[in-house]
Design brief:
alpha/beta
Length: 406
C-alpha cells in the first residue's frame, strides 16, 4: 500500500441547512471515520447537538444570542418552519406552480444566508486547512469553490436535474421518462424563467467578491460542477439508464445511510394489534401542514393496519387515532427495519434509506425532487405514487380496503 493511500485526511463537510443533506453527509462521514480519517462538520449551531452526539467535531456557522450551542431539544428548523408555514397552500397546486413560488420565496433568503457565512468559511478553511471539502448544497460559497482546496460536490437529491439531458424530462415536475419532447421543451422554458432570478443573485454575489460568474445559464447548474469529484445518490434500480453516464468525474452511490446508536421498540399500544406495520413520514414541509396530516391520518384511521407517525413540528396540534402512535421526530433508521411499508413524501434520503432496508414505498410527493422520485419508483415498478391532497380512500387502500403491498 502506498504512503498516499495510508495518509489520514481531514475532511470538512459543509452541507446546506436541512436534515436530509446533513444525514447524507453523516453517512459519508461515517465511512471515512471507519477508515480513520478525520471528519468535521461546518453547520448552523442548531444542528450541532445531534452531530456531537454521533461523535463529530463541529465548526459553528451560527450561534445563539448567548454564544452557546442550542439545547438538544431545540427545533433545528424553526426559522424555516415559520417561513414555510406561511406558504403551505402552494403545495396543493401544480408542480410547476410550486417550483415558481418557492424559488421566488427562497432565492433572497438562501443567498443572503450564505453570503453572511462567507467570512466564517474563510476563517474555518484557513485555520483547519482541510485536505478535502465536501459540499451538499444547491448554491455554494465562492470561498469554498475557489479556496484552492480540492472539493467534492455531493448531490444528495434525486439526480434527474444533474442529467439535464433532452432525452429525459425536466426535473422537479414528476414527468414520466416516456413522454413528448415538445412538452418537455415548454416545461424547461418555464423552469429557466423561474430560476432566472436565482442566477442573477448568485452571479452578483460571486462577482462582488471578485470571483467569476457561473459558467452555465441552465437552471440545472446553480452550483458549479467540481473539477475533482461529483457524487449523486440514487439506488441502481432507479438510475436513469436511458442516457449515457455523466462525465468521468461523476459517480453514483446507492445512498449514504447513517450509522447511529438509535434504538426503537414497537409501542405497546400497537404491539398486539393485528395488521401490517406502516411508517408515515411526510418530511419537514409535510409535517408542518396540519390539513394534510389530519387528512392522511383520518383516512388511515379506517385501515386495519398499524401506523407509526412522524408528527412533525405541529405534533401537538392534532391527535392520532387508536391504530396509530407517533412523536414529533423518530429515529428513522431504527424504525424502517421494523415496518412492512413506508408512506413517505419521497425525500431522497428517505427513499435511499427505505431501499437500503428493503421495504416497499408509497410516495406522496409535495414538491421538487420528491415528484421525480415518486414517478421513478412507479415507472420502474418498485413503488407507488399518489397525490397526498387529492387521492381517494379507494386509491390509498386499494380494492380491498388496504394498502397496496408490493
Amino acid at each position: 500500500m502506498s504512503n498516499a493511500s495510508q495518509r489520514k485526511l481531514t475532511v470538512l463537510f459543509a452541507p446546506t441547512d436541512g436534515w436530509g443533506h446533513i444525514n447524507a453527509c453523516q453517512g459519508m462521514a461515517d465511512g471515512l471515520r471507519e477508515r480513520d480519517h478525520r471528519a468535521i462538520f461546518a453547520v448552523a449551531a442548531k444542528f450541532a447537538p445531534k452531530l456531537h452526539a454521533s461523535g463529530y467535531e463541529v465548526e459553528l456557522l451560527t450561534v445563539t444570542a448567548e454564544g452557546q450551542l442550542p439545547t438538544p431539544g431545540a427545533d433545528a428548523n424553526q426559522g424555516e418552519n415559520n417561513f414555510v408555514a406561511r406558504n403551505l397552500d402552494v403545495f396543493k397546486t401544480s408542480a410547476i406552480n410550486v417550483v415558481e413560488m418557492y424559488v421566488k420565496l427562497f432565492a433572497d433568503r438562501l443567498c443572503s444566508k450564505l453570503r453572511d457565512r462567507d467570512p466564517l468559511f474563510r476563517e474555518i478553511i484557513g485555520r483547519l486547512r482541510p485536505d478535502v471539502i465536501v459540499v451538499d448544497t444547491y448554491i455554494s460559497s465562492p470561498y469554498i469553490v475557489y479556496s484552492g482546496v480540492p472539493w467534492v460536490w455531493l448531490y444528495s437529491a434525486s439526480p434527474l436535474m444533474m442529467f439535464n439531458d433532452p432525452r429525459l424530462p425536466p426535473a422537479w415536475l414528476g414527468l414520466p421518462t416516456v413522454g413528448k419532447a415538445s412538452e418537455w421543451t415548454e416545461h424547461r422554458s418555464q423552469l429557466e424563467v423561474a430560476f432566472k432570478m436565482c442566477y442573477q443573485k448568485v452571479n452578483e454575489w460571486y462577482e462582488s467578491e471578485g470571483f467569476p460568474p457561473l459558467k452555465s445559464t441552465s437552471y440545472c447548474n446553480l452550483h458549479p460542477i467540481s473539477p475533482y469529484l461529483n457524487i449523486y445518490m440514487t439506488p441502481e434500480e432507479l438510475d436513469y439508464k436511458e442516457v449515457q453516464p455523466l462525465a468521468h468525474n461523476w459517480h453514483r452511490v446507492d445512498g449514504f445511510v447513517r450509522t447511529t446508536h438509535d434504538t426503537f421498540e414497537i409501542p405497546e399500544s400497537l404491539r398486539d394489534r393485528p395488521g401490517k406495520l406502516v411508517l408515515l413520514t411526510m418530511g419537514s414541509f409535510g409535517g408542518q401542514h396540519l390539513e394534510l396530516m389530519t387528512r392522511l391520518t383520518t383516512i388511515l384511521a379506517k385501515s386495519e393496519h398499524r401506523f407509526i407517525v412522524a408528527k412533525g413540528p405541529i405534533h401537538d396540534k392534532y391527535e392520532l387515532p387508536s391504530n396509530m402512535w407517533g412523536k414529533k421526530t423518530l429515529p428513522q433508521t431504527a424504525v424502517i427495519p421494523l415496518v412492512d411499508l413506508v408512506l413517505t413524501h419521497g425525500g431522497n434520503n428517505t427513499v435511499t434509506e427505505t431501499f437500503y432496508f428493503g421495504k416497499p414505498m408509497l410516495v406522496l410527493p409535495l414538491w421538487a425532487d420528491q415528484y421525480d422520485n415518486a414517478q421513478r419508483l412507479q415507472e420502474t415498478g418498485l413503488g407507488l405514487r399518489l397525490n397526498p391532497f387529492h387521492c381517494t380512500e379507494e386509491e390509498l387502500f386499494g380494492s380491498k380496503n388496504e394498502i397496496n403491498w408490493r
